[in-house]
Design brief:
Elements lengths: L2 H21 L9 H12 L1 H18 L9 H21 L11 H27 L5 H44 L19
Helix pairs in contact: 1-2, 1-3, 2-3, 2-4, 2-6, 3-4, 4-5, 5-6
Amino acid sequence: MTSTQKLTIIALFTSLIIACDYALVSVSNVKLLNTLVFCSAYSFGFKVGASIALLSELIWGIVTPNGFGGLIIPFLAGGEVLFAVAGYAASKMWKLDELKAVSPVNLYFGALIAICTFFWDLETNLATGLLEGARTFVEYIAVLSIGIPFAAIHEASDFVLGAALAPVVILCFKRYAHRFNINPNLARTASVPHSAVVN
């Protein structure tokens, strides 16, 4: 991809994520952000996915209707990069030809996204405790305990959204890849071993 194409994809995805966040603002802990970051990294590479992750969290942390995020923003943005790592790793483990709108593989996508969500929730809850003055193990456990119901909803919704939507979004990219010539990797057909790891 050219630099212009990459910047366009980053801008489009970031705008879409912010719009979806606003549309779902009344639904607690249900967002398309993580799934879309995963899809962008699978389809366009880690750098593009990570850029979208960082920009989306940075912008949302500033313009969110819930108020300015403040010192928690770097933790939110840094944690979001996990989804770019997972999307890129998934592209190495499951080649595009294996994806279908309905397939057992989709459950792996949902599971990967849910696992990343668990670690994102853990990291951001610990960061919240730190910023609010927690210093002892008991205080951190208290912070994590308060966040359990919210984290459970977050992880369950991300599993469902990831399994149901991630393959569909990626297949849409494949359908239009040749027409717009924006990503040769989407047309790849060579087998990739399931044991492949992120380079």
